[in-house]
Design goal:
Length: about 600
């Protein structure tokens, strides 16, 4: 037997492909052979090494043959067996491990062939790697990814075949808490985990206006007409709140919010403003106080209301009235602005009296209204002072007392025919002018008449006065029977006093018809000195009789004051009772107690004492 040949048992192989796992040298096979050993050996320079029987380097191929060949390196456990590993980690968005990782493996094996052609330098070749278990060639899927308090939008870790027989990979299942507190503005759709762009995303409701708010107080400085006096002061208090995003339904997260809190814990109020001074204006407000906002988003306006240092007042104002009606707590008007302070009346009273001081006619009271303005100085806003302008006529067109013609009073003459107009001066005070009337005395009959009275109607006793046709009193006229009463008294109306060309004066009269009782066209003239012989033709209210007697041949009683609607005839000597005297145009009527009207002509009726 050749001593350099190695022998291998056929085993469960055949001659062309022996399967024995021990090699023998020729010497060792001769020395060790016995009938229990394989009965067929073939010469072979190689031997198979299975993955389940790894060999140590330098170990004897045949333990019973110490001089036989030895295994080279490359046949260890790790040379013939290997595994691919996938580690599944469960981490939150901060990388924190939430539960123990799951380690999955797929094991591989291969056989080796050792070639001992050069017994001192054997070589090793390998078969292909194959799954150690033909039923396990993939990492199994993991579908239960639930962890209390956390959510992931990953449904499962899928089953997967290793990409290599020796890979060692890590797969992370990334979680976020069920509820995520958000303090800063986040755009909708932003991944919760920036390292996991496919993971859960933030919903809407996390914008600037959702998490931040500003309360504003604007302080305006305005006068009592609402005019802005200086630029407003705008004060703000910033607020923030956090949001709690609930990812329980990871695809439809909901948002709730915490309470609004000051963004700066040291600034939770509007600051006080104490300097309210504006040149030329005053306010009784001491300051705008510090105040906490009523809400996180209020927008309020506070007005500091001013009035001018000096306020001109033209109208009456009650003490205590606010200067600004829209600011009832603001500065108030002091006293000194009443009706009597700002308005006054100057008066001129014209009295009409006789020479005994008896009032003959109601006085004429003339007035000129005056006004002045007031200047209220609010420099000391709580103790304002008042000064006044000059008194001026209230109506610029009425600054004088107008002229007044003294009225004519029957039987009197006045000492002032016309009270002249006069410019009113406030300092003149109240004026009084007295017009004194003196009775005109008829020297024959001791009866008063006013021969200057307009439309005065009178008569003279028979044959006591001469009448002339001309004002110069040259042509005497004694043919006046048509104008004489039953007792021969001429009746006439005094028209005017005439100044004649020869320097004399006379009175022009218009004769009254005895037939109609009305004025005729006949004009005559009297001597000036005869005027005192003229008696009033009618009874008037100044000398109303209570009882009268008919002295004419007769008088008629009428229904009406104009002597129409005759009702009765009263003959001479009849006594009648008078209730009143009425005027019908320019003549007088007596109204009797029975309601009838009769003439008030003294030549037809006479008072009975």
């Amino acid at each position: 037997m050749n001593s350099n040949v190695l022998w291998r048992a056929v085993g469960n192989g055949d001659i062309s492909n022996p399967k024995g796992n021990i090699l023998y040298t020729s010497n060792s096979l001769s020395n060790l052979y016995n009938p229990s050993m394989a009965d067929t050996y073939v010469a072979s320079n190689s031997i198979d090494v299975n993955s389940d029987s790894p060999k140590l380097a330098n170990s004897l191929v045949n333990p019973d043959d110490s001089t036989g060949p030895k295994y080279p390196s490359g046949l260890s456990e790790s040379n013939l067996n290997i595994k691919a590993t996938r580690t599944i980690e469960y981490v939150d968005n901060n990388g924190k491990t939430l539960k123990s990782p799951v380690v999955q493996t797929v094991e591989y094996k291969r056989n080796a062939i050792v070639n001992f052609s050069d017994v001192n330098n054997p070589t090793v070749s390998y078969g292909s790697w194959m799954p150690a278990d033909s039923n396990i060639d993939s990492y199994p899927a993991v579908t239960d990814l639930q962890i209390d308090g956390y959510v992931t939008n990953q449904k499962a870790v899928s089953s997967a075949k290793p990409s290599s027989n020796s890979e060692n990979i890590t797969v992370q299942v990334k979680y976020i808490p069920n509820k995520v507190t958000v303090d800063n503005v986040i755009k909708e759709g932003t991944p919760v985990d920036s390292n996991n762009p496919t993971g859960p995303k933030y919903p809407s409701g996390l914008s600037e206006s959702d998490l931040n708010s500003t309360s504003t107080r604007t302080i305006e400085y305005v006068d009592n007409n609402g005019k802005t006096l200086k630029s407003p002061v705008v004060q703000t208090v910033e607020y923030k709140r956090n949001a709690i995003v609930n990812f329980s339904d990871v695809n439809n997260p909901t948002v709730s919010y915490g309470s609004w809190m000051p963004a700066d814990s040291n600034i939770d109020s509007y600051p006080a403003v104490t300097d309210l001074q504006i040149d030329g204006y005053v306010t009784n407000q001491k300051a705008v106080s510090s105040a906490k906002p009523f809400s996180n988003s209020e927008n309020i306006t506070v007005q500091v209301k001013y009035i001018p240092n000096k306020v001109t007042v033209d109208n009456v104002i009650k003490e205590g009235t606010p200067v600004d009606s829209n600011n009832p707590t603001g500065p108030k008007y002091p006293s000194g602005l009443s009706e009597s302070d700002l308005n006054s009346t100057s008066t001129r009273t014209i009295e009409y009296v006789d020479n005994n001081g008896k009032t003959l006619k109601s006085p004429v009271v003339q007035t000129v209204e005056y006004k002045r303005n007031a200047i209220v100085d609010f420099s000391d806003v709580n103790n304002p002072t008042v000064s006044y302008g000059s008194w001026m006529p209230a109506d610029g067109n009425i600054d004088s007392y107008p002229a007044v013609t003294s009225p004519q009073i029957d039987g009197y003459s006045s000492n002032i025919g016309v009270v002249n107009s006069k410019v009113s001066k406030f300092d003149d005070g109240n004026l009084k002018i007295t017009v004194v009337y003196t009775p005109i005395i008829n020297s024959f009959y001791n009866e008063r008449i006013d021969i200057y009275a307009y439309h005065f109607r009178g008569y003279t006793k028979p044959n006591t006065v001469k009448f002339y046709d001309d004002s110069n009193l040259v042509q005497f006229n004694n043919n006046l029977n048509s104008y004489k009463s039953e007792n021969g008294s001429p009746m006439f109306k005094v028209l005017e006093k005439v100044h004649n060309s020869n320097g004399s004066t006379s009175y022009k009269v218009q004769m009254i018809s005895k037939y109609t009782g009305r004025l005729s066209s006949k004009i005559a003239y009297l001597l000036s000195e005869d005027i005192n012989k003229v008696l009033p033709l009618y009874y008037t209210n100044e000398n109303r009789p209570n009882r009268i007697k008919v002295i004419g041949s007769l008088v008629c009683g009428y229904k009406n004051a104009n002597l129409t609607g005759r009702k009765n005839i009263y003959n001479q000597g009849k006594i009648l009772y008078v209730s009143s005297i009425v005027k019908d145009g320019l003549v007088y009527r007596l109204q009797l107690t029975n309601g009838e009207y009769i003439t008030a002509n003294r030549l037809y009726v006479s008072e009975v004492k």
